[in-house]
């Protein structure tokens, strides 16, 4: 009996041993056969590292070969999570906290970067452009910081400082949203990506192809030997249309004009913009926006102070003001003059007597008390006679003025290869309604839409200007019945004719419109990049002049307007006669744009040489008073740089317009 019990227990024990043996054998078979590839890969990845060699981005040059943006080697800090895990460090969180303290980062930010890493075997880049003293501190604590990798990679350098900052934009690590959008293009977390400006527009060309180095490491994650290298391929270079001398002159002059305006009591005069175009092609020679910012600060670790300075400043240096729309003031008067001549409602010889005001229900003052006396069209442009253009605007009518403005590209995006361009607004019936629509009640909006739809159909079928004028008048009467301010009034035409009211245009648009006047009526699409060149010097993309429109304006009309603009720079009462002495003959138009509850904007537009135009410019100094006084010196400095003349610096003239 006892013997049978022992035998039974032995059999049970044998079964248990056999079961355990089968489990172990099964697990061994599973790991050795079925999971062989996986564990072989893990072992290989633990022994070998694929270290990415960052490719330098393409460099950027001006039209004369002056380097605008290049590359320089900088220190970067990354965290190799595989090495950290295999280092035997019990508390990996302590490594993260210690490293965060050295880099002045939030530990959670580091952990977030680690969590977002898709390729777990690659180091996670934490900081770029790391100062040497930080690198030294990390090396001093190397034993307490397993897995921390210090490397050198090429990052953007700017030989001319902040020159052309808003146009070029800046480069920074790719955001999660950008990574998701571009994941099929080979980007990975930590890669650099153009965030704005040309760096963004030409990202696909500027971006290089990263190389790699296969490295064998020991158990501590330290390199033992190289197993192979794939060299990186640099990005393509850009050759811009920009002239570095003209660009620098524009930026320096805007800063000087702002400082001078502040000294004279214009306390908001802290910003401005300037554009120069080649009138023969539409190539951008300069595009300046003030104040500027240091793009280096945006490429590496961004402190809160730097962030506030660039993004939260009330003057918004991150903005490219050359693409923002402003009230044009008297720089718009050539449009009204051309509309009047083309409509045959006036001749260049027709005169008016300007007593210093125009009365139509209320008094509209000229900028000059006492007026300008007897003026014809050329003289009206020369002295910027408001009274003349008040009356001419009424004779022409807003519809023809609007159409003339559109002929010269005003009120529409130019199509330049930059994000963030304003379309602007051409004053007129449609613009007035659109700008005020949101202030109407829902019932009024519904009624207005019915009127708009009905008259849009009728206007599309209208034959001739007279029928169109009658329809617009009837539409205005019906809108007037809904809301007084929806209808177009004569006073709207009066203030629009001197570039006030709803008119809003960018300096790029104004420069392009003046370039079109200068070159005989050809409206070009402005462009910034001449060509894209690969690392071997081969041209892979070239931008040629693109004609957008041939303005429907006679050569005779353009000649009259150009003559008036030439007179602006001549003694004794041209509104810019104090500038451009010793220059090739310059044609210009100053402007003082009224801004509600603020000081006036100062503007000037112009082109040169008068008899064989090459360059057109447009300048604004915000809240700086008078165009002839504050914007004039900026245009003068730009043209001096273009023609190789000494920079005349700041000067004042007596004319406030």
Report on the architecture of this protein:
With 657 residues, this protein is α+β, with helices and mostly antiparallel strands. Among the domains are: 2-34; 49-237, Alpha-Beta Complex (Penicillin-binding protein 2a (Domain 2)), CATH 3.90.1310; 429-487, no CATH class. Helices cover 40% and strands 20% of the residues. It has 23 helices and 25 strands. The strands form eight sheets. Strands 2, 3, 4, 5, 10, 20 and 21 form a seven-stranded mixed β-sheet that branches. Helix 14 runs parallel beside helix 22. It is elongated, with a radius of gyration of 34 Å. It starts with a helix and ends in a 15-residue tail after the last helix. The mean pLDDT is 88.
Give the overall silhouette. elongated
The main β sheet shows up as: 7 strands, mixed
- How many helix segments? 23
Task: Give helix % range.
Answer: 40-55%
- CATH level 1 class label of the domain at 49-237: Alpha Beta
CATH architecture of the domain at 49-237: Alpha-Beta Complex
Please, what is the oligomeric state? single chain
Determine Rg (CA atoms, Å): 34 Å
Q: What is the strand content?
A: 15-25%
> What class, by secondary structure content?
alpha+beta
CATH topology of the domain at 49-237: Penicillin-binding protein 2a (Domain 2)
- Strand element count: 25
pLDDT below 50 for ≥5 consecutive residues: which ranges?
Answer: none
The N- to C-terminal Cα distance equals 126 Å
Give the name of the CATH superfamily of the domain at 49-237. Answer: Penicillin-binding protein 2a (Domain 2)
User: Mean pLDDT, as a whole number?
Assistant: 88
